[in-house]
Amino acid sequence: MDRLGNQDFDVLIVGAGLAGLCCARRLASGGAFVLLVDAKKDLTESVHTTGIFVRKTFEDFDLPAGSLGRAISKVRLYSPSLKTVDLDSEQPEYRIGDMKLIYRSLLEECADLGVTFLSGTRFSASIPDKQVAGGSIVRLVKGRKRTDVRTKLLIGADGTDSRVARDLELDRNQEWIVGFEEVLTGIEGPREPMLHCFLDSELAPGYIGWIADDGNECHVGVGGYTDRFEPKTALSQFREHVVSGLFDLSNSRLVESRGGRIPVGGILKKIACERGLLIGDAAGAVSPLTAGGLDPCLRLSVYAAEIALARLSSDDPSRLRSYSGKMFRTKFIPRMMLRALFRSVKFQVQFEFLFWAITTWPGRWTAEKIFYRRASFPDVNADHPLRRPYVEGLDGHWK
Ligand SMILES: Cc1cc2nc3c(=O)[nH]c(=O)nc-3n(C[C@H](O)[C@H](O)[C@H](O)COP(=O)(O)OP(=O)(O)OC[C@H]3O[C@@H](n4cnc5c(N)ncnc54)[C@H](O)[C@@H]3O)c2cc1C
Fold it and tell me: What digits encode the pLDDT tens for the residues 150-196?
């Protein structure tokens, strides 16, 4: 790691989740000299997402070959008393991604493009570099070893509780839920690919319980506000009292457990300063209603990379000012209002009423819009952004 002390990077990205990897790939393909660091020793350890990709994502983005499971076109909603309503679509609406394969493939692509990657390396702090306008000297820690690295631009892709956000004095996530799930194999019986969503104010207060089943592995999880439930206990109750009544789990095998915080307060306003910017969960780029963050993190990363390349090519740090969460927030107002409604539901009887409302035609129409509309995150330069080569000086425009 010492050799890094003698190198200057154009961009240092902290966090090699989907946001960091996509941004690094994009920047490197645009000619930037990129350093990507992650605290994990191995990116495939402690995956914390179910990996459900919405149609809009797999239509617009090239994800690694073979990384997406079978199409899911059906959603079944359950009331607290397990009444059901089915929402069918004629199109493939969801696919569950093999996240380990996706992370590995993206990392290989980054390496091919010349990105330097350091695993097991934590971002600790940064200070302004007096010699370079907008530049930073960043302290990295690997085990007991500390190294200081110079970079023109610092990007925080370090998740919900972003240390980079704190360091750069940018906005930080104030509201989140916690999701916790088990990935199971060996479930007996014929199964139709389906997303099962459970409304339950006790097992999943403020969110849902879910079974995401594409006929391969089955993801069983709960999410909610931690002041109202204990996720591990809720998940075991959900598995024992609800899931085992619907599926034959007698020969099922636990592959892994996944969990983590999901920011649901909407995209943050101040996500850039002259020294750097935030992407992914660090920027709060998650749908406040569905808590889906994969599509937002892809779109925002590509957009951020465009802005970063424009800033590097002009050598003008003020170019980063155009990168602001305020542009996106208005698009999220209806979803933030629905999140407030969801947060306020505290009793099963309220969820039973909500479920009844979904059985009426306006309720069903709304539910179909939530589950099937191509609207997870506002499009920026929307014509297949990952496939398009970088165009120097391109400014983002809104559809
Ligand atoms: C249980 C659960 C299920 C979910 N399911 C879905 C789903 O099915 N579909 C969907 O669209 N969204 C889902 N989400 C949300 C989605 O997973 C996230 O929005 C998305 O993965 C965020 O990616 P990211 O790259 O921004 O952050 P992360 O994936 O959190 O990556 C951040 C990286 O930064 C690293 N890091 C953190 N701090 C430091 C540091 N100081 N130094 C160095 N490295 C650091 C971490 O090790 C990590 O690798 C789910 C979330 C959870 C918790």
Answer: 999 999 999 999 999 999 999 999 999 999 999 999 998 778 999 99
Q: Does 16 sit in the ligand 1 pocket, CB within 6 Å?
A: yes
Ligand 1 pocket member 139 (CB < 6 A): no
Residue 293 CB–ligand 1 contact under 6 Å: yes
Q: Whose CA is nearest to atom 39 of ligand 1?
A: 158
158 within ligand 1 shell (Cβ under 6 A): yes
Report all structural domains of the chain as residue ranges with CATH numbers, in order of start.
2-47+100-173+265-343 (3.50.50.60), 52-96+176-262 (3.30.9.10)
Burial label, 221 (beta-carbon count in 10 A; 0-12, 13-18, 19+): buried
Three-class secondary structure of residue 209 per DSSP: strand
Angle at 165 between CA 159 and CA 170, to 5 degrees: 135
Among the listed residues 216, 15, 213, 18, the one whose alpha carbon sits nearest the alpha carbon of residue 102? 18
Does the CB atom of residue 38 touch ligand 1 within 6 A?
yes
Looking at residue 380, its pLDDT comes to: 61
At a CB cut-off of 8 Å and minimum separation 6, what does 307 contact?
272, 277, 319, 320, 322, 323, 396
Chain segment 294-333, per-residue pLDDT in tens: 999 999 999 999 999 999 998 888 889 889 998 888 888 8
Report in angstroms the alpha-carbon separations of 248 from 208, 219, 235, 256, 398.
22, 14, 17, 19, 48
Average pLDDT, the chain: 90
206 C-alpha to ligand 1 centroid (Å): 20
**Ligand 1 touching residue 163 (CB < 6 A):** yes
